[in-house]
Design brief:
mainly alpha, 68% helix, two-stranded antiparallel sheet
């Protein structure tokens, strides 16, 4: 028994020793992970930081006072490692379960605030900047409030900025911005005590000199020539934050040359964001010579940003030169993650080929997701690619987006697709089908065929889809038409799914709206049908007649639409057409158009012997003009003969005769109404 007890004690000691050893080893591992993450962050290897800290936070042994340091590192690195579909949320959830919270990432917000400021969107710039508590955000908010001339808001932003320890540049700029707002300075420049108990004025202006000259110029720009030497000299001594603020404000005032000069410091290792801004400023000014291969050899904090390589590649392609494709995907992956690295590699590789494949490049640009959010150069490039494929509506959309951030015009590239000419006759469907089958990837040939009235079968339409970029209208319209002709539930649903992106991308695409209306009608959703028809005409008034014909087709196809509904649609579509043409119902041309349209519908109804539609149309004509004697007469006839309402018929026809006494047809109607009254009295 004694020996057994000793054995148990010894076993316990060994177990305790093992536990201590294991615990010590785990703690050492946590320290190693944290140390490795810090070293990686200093080198800019942000993806490695996240990988390492993921191991750290998933280990139950890593719970210490150093968790705050780990969270801070993760917050700093996370903004440099983009992931699709907000995948960063997973990190936040893991930390939340441990009672920790990721810090606020200000970089993206400040970039957005700067972008708003650059393009004169003062309210948006201020709202975004106020989310953060930095000197740069304070200056952006203050500049926006001054631009809006809102004294109370200026006072608020002035006080917020006062609480931050700003640089000489930021303090001087804030003071200069407020020189013309004397009431604000009078309120805020009251003496306060500093730490030593001495009185001082808050936000006092620093001493004059080159910095003050630059700040004065930023506040009230004059001729560029006078400030360029000063700007170059001052920029070399400014912090990166001050450079970002100064160049944002200069760009906001249209002083792109001065902003470019300040950022153009080849011998200084610039941050990624400033290098990207410099490349884009050069592009916006058409200075493509500066965006040559030597630009990529500039000093940078870390590797050259992929956005800069992208800009240089496009500049090369504009000059019919091959893109200098020198993208280190492995290094980029360590810095920005596998997701971003793989997307940029595909896009840049597509730019490096001898011939630009527009469809593939459009797919690559779309696959980038949020990586190109707000990148005006990417919008401009996509507009050019879409234009080369004949996708005018989508090209115009991206052209507007590019212009909204300062990039104007469509790029021209030498090596773009060459389209064949369709040699078949307009009615030779077999010839057109054989030609397209042989050259199914020639989208220009497809457009010629569609314009000629060609209606491809489902198989050929699906082949077009395979040779087109995902974001394109042509294949969606063609395939949707083929599916609608199939006329079954599954095909109708697929057609709507295919069309839905077009209705989002280009809401005014009338052909897509009319096709969608056909599918909605199939499923009996008459409200959606009318919305689609209305949208088609509101954006393309020239398609009003086609739209009205389609509405009549819906009316004749079953009982899903009543006569009153059709008349309501007919009038509604015509009113939308009038609005698009700036015509009102009281304008002579507008009144005439509405009367003619309703009269056409009435004639159609009479031709079809559709009494319900005839009556509904005449009632609408009389609402428009109670003195329309033709409508009065015809409605009187139907009221007496078809609806057995001779009393109302008599009132209508008497009024018609009073308005047009010499019309023999109206007198015939009067006799018919009188006979109906006599018959009614006898019965």
């Amino acid at each position: 028994m004694k020996k057994l007890l000793i054995g148990l004690l010894l076993g316990g000691c060994v177990a305790i020793g093992s536990y201590v050893a294991v615990d010590y080893s785990a703690a050492a591992q946590c320290e190693d992970w944290l140390r490795e993450a810090k070293a990686a962050e200093e080198k800019g290897l942000n993806a490695r930081v996240i990988t390492t800290l993921t191991l750290y936070f998933h280990s139950t042994a890593c719970r210490s006072a150093q968790d705050a340091d780990a969270v801070h590192l993760l917050t700093k690195s996370r903004k440099h490692v983009p992931l699709p579909s907000n995948a960063h949320l997973g990190q936040a959830i893991v930390l939340a379960k441990q009672g920790l919270q990721l810090g606020e990432d200000t970089s993206a917000g400040l970039e957005m605030a700067s972008a708003y400021l650059v393009h004169g969107k003062w309210a948006q710039a201020r709202a975004m900047a106020r989310q953060f508590k930095t000197t740069q955000s304070g200056l952006i908010a203050l500049a926006a409030s001054v631009a809006l001339a809102e004294d109370k808001e200026i006072e608020f932003d002035f006080k917020q900025l006062e609480e931050n320890n700003g640089s000489t540049f930021s303090l001087l700029l804030a003071h200069r911005l407020l020189l013309k707002r004397s009431s604000i300075l009078a309120v805020d420049n009251t003496p306060v005590e500093d730490q030593d108990g001495e009185e001082q004025l808050p936000l006092a202006a620093p001493a004059s000199g080159s910095m003050e000259q630059l700040v004065t110029y930023i506040a009230e720009p004059t001729q560029d020539e006078m400030i360029l030497p000063v700007a170059m000299a001052v920029a070399a001594t400014m912090s990166f934050d001050d450079l970002a603020t100064a160049t944002s404000l200069l760009a906001a005032k249209g002083k792109l040359v001065v902003a470019t000069i300040m950022l153009d410091q080849p011998g200084r290792a610039m941050t990624s964001q400033l290098l990207i801004r410099l490349a884009h400023l050069m592009w916006m000014q058409g200075d493509l010579k500066s965006l040559d291969g030597e630009f990529l050899s500039r000093k940078a904090q870390g590797m050259m940003p992929a956005e800069v390589i992208f800009a240089v590649c496009l500049a090369k392609r504009r000059g019919n030169q091959i893109c200098p494709f020198e993208f280190d995907e492995a290094q980029y992956q360590e810095r920005h993650g596998a997701y971003a690295a793989s997307k940029w590699a595909v896009l840049l590789e597509g730019l490096s080929g001898e011939d630009l494949q527009a469809g593939q490049l459009i797919d690559a640009l779309n696959d980038m997701g949020t990586l190109l959010d707000g990148n005006g150069l990417a919008h401009q490039f996509k507009a050019s690619l879409l234009s080369s494929l004949g996708e005018k509506a989508l090209a115009h959309k991206y052209e507007r987006l590019a212009e909204g951030v300062g990039y104007k015009g469509i790029m021209s590239f030498g090596a773009m697709p060459h389209h064949r000419q369709l040699s078949c006759g307009a009615n030779d469907q077999l010839c057109i089908s054989n030609t397209l089958s042989s050259f199914v990837g020639d989208l220009g040939l497809w457009r010629q065929a569609i314009d000629a009235g060609f209606k491809p079968n489902l198989l050929l339409a699906k082949q077009l889809r395979e040779h087109s970029p995902e974001e394109a209208v042509l294949w969606r319209i063609v395939l949707a038409q083929a599916l609608l002709r199939a006329g079954d539930d599954e095909s109708m649903v697929e057609a709507l799914i295919i069309l839905r992106p077009v209705l989002t991308w280009v809401p005014g695409h009338s052909a897509a709206q009319l096709l969608a209306a056909t599918a909605y009608f199939y499923f009996g959703d008459t409200e959606a049908v009318f919305i689609a028809l209305s949208s088609a005409v509101a954006h393309r008034p020239n398609r009003a007649v086609e739209t009205l014909r389609l509405a009549v087709g819906f009316y004749e196809d079953g009982n899903k639409i009543s006569a009153n509904q059709l008349v309501h649609w007919w009038q509604g579509v015509t009113l939308l057409e009038m609005k698009a043409r700036n015509l009102t119902v009281t304008h002579p041309e507008g009144e005439q158009l509405l009367r003619e349209r309703l009269s056409l519908l009435a004639a159609f109804a009479e031709g079809k012997n559709d009494i319900d539609l005839s009556i509904a149309t005449y009632e609408k004509l009389l609402q428009q003009n109670p003195n329309n004697h033709m409508a009065l007469n015809n409605l009187a006839y139907h009221m007496a003969i078809s609806r057995d309402q001779p009393q109302r018929a008599l009132q209508l026809v008497v009024k018609a005769i009073s308005l047009h006494p010499m019309n023999a047809e109206y007198r015939k109607t009067f006799k018919s109404v009188r006979h109906a009254l006599e018959d009614n009295n006898l019965n």
